[in-house]
Design goal:
It is built from eleven helices and three strands; from the N terminus they run αααααααααβαββα. The protein is mainly alpha-helical. The longest helix is centred in the N-terminal third of the chain and has 38 residues.
Length: 290
């Protein structure tokens, strides 16, 4: 008979692995655009220096040419980067789903004493939506940056105005990272749910909060629902911060949430303190220590 402490310790290790997958996905997905924007800024700087050799600002005609050139630099920098980032995030989500399914299956087998049915991991609709939304999000930041690139703003701010445009464009990299985080954790959650459903219709999903979880996620630690049902809404260990009013089907509860769920049944012969109580205790102890 397996120890509940061993199951809890093993289950609480996956969030660290999800963090590594997420961070690597954010780097890999965002790096091509980030580097392209660095190159665009260097080129914009050289062209500015060339256009302002003898004056603080380019002449009106030269300024128009300069703005057109910077727009082209941005267009070149952004071209294809949203699609590339989305493809990279999908790969990371699949890796997350594979790892989650493997871990969830192993934990369920250890608790139940029975092998889990074989299954092919999939990233699920939430992760797919997060990845597919990246090209539009990247293009949105492109347009927002272009909106700042006007003759009036450059005349008023000089090259600082151009720098502001490039910095605004870099928000696209931040949005890529946010989408990567949602996709990775959503895929892990979907895979664990698929494992629970494969085991049987009464198998529950037990919420495992990542170490150091926020007050909201900490309140879900140790709670369980039948796969496909929703967890209670608006839980929090801090009554002043019940900010998630919608009842979740599982993690992620928020961007960069690395909680996950594992298959669970109170009838499985696990030795020691009941697993939900262990997970609940760990989350609350960590919150008090924070």
């Amino acid at each position: 008979m397996v120890s509940s402490n061993r199951i809890a310790d093993t289950a609480r290790q996956l969030p660290a692995a999800l963090r590594r997958i997420e961070q690597q996905a954010a780097r890999d997905a965002g790096q091509p655009l980030a580097q392209a924007l660095v190159d665009a800024q260097r080129s914009a700087t050289r062209q500015w220096l060339h256009a302002t050799t003898r004056q603080a600002l380019p002449s009106p005609t030269a300024l128009d040419r300069y703005i057109a050139a910077v727009k082209q630099l941005l267009a070149d920098a952004f071209r294809g980067k949203g699609k590339l980032a989305a493809d990279t995030i999908r790969i990371a989500a699949f890796n997350s789903a594979q790892l989650s399914a493997k871990q969830a299956s192993a934990l369920a087998a250890a608790m139940s004493g029975e092998p889990t049915p074989p299954m092919q991991p999939a990233i699920g609709p939430e992760a797919a939506t997060a990845a597919d939304a990246v090209p539009a999000a990247v293009e949105d930041e492109h347009h927002r940056a272009l909106a700042l690139l006007t003759a009036a703003s450059i005349t008023a701010l000089g090259f600082a105005g151009v720098t502001g445009v490039i910095n605004r464009a870099r928000r696209a990299v931040t949005r890529i990272a946010r989408h990567a985080a949602v996709a990775v954790t959503s895929a892990a959650s979907h895979a664990a749910t698929a494992v629970a459903r494969a085991i049987g219709p009464t198998t529950r999903l037990l919420w495992v909060a990542e170490p150091g979880a926020c007050p909201a996620c900490g309140a879900y630690a140790g709670r369980s629902v039948v796969a496909g049902r929703r967890f209670p809404a608006a839980l929090s260990l801090n009554p002043q911060r019940t900010v998630f009013a919608t009842a979740p089907t599982g993690p992620p509860l928020h961007p960069h949430c690395r909680c996950w769920t594992i298959p669970y049944s109170p009838t499985w012969p696990v030795d020691g303190t009941p697993l939900p109580a262990l997970l609940r205790r760990a989350a609350r102890t960590e919150r008090r220590a924070a």
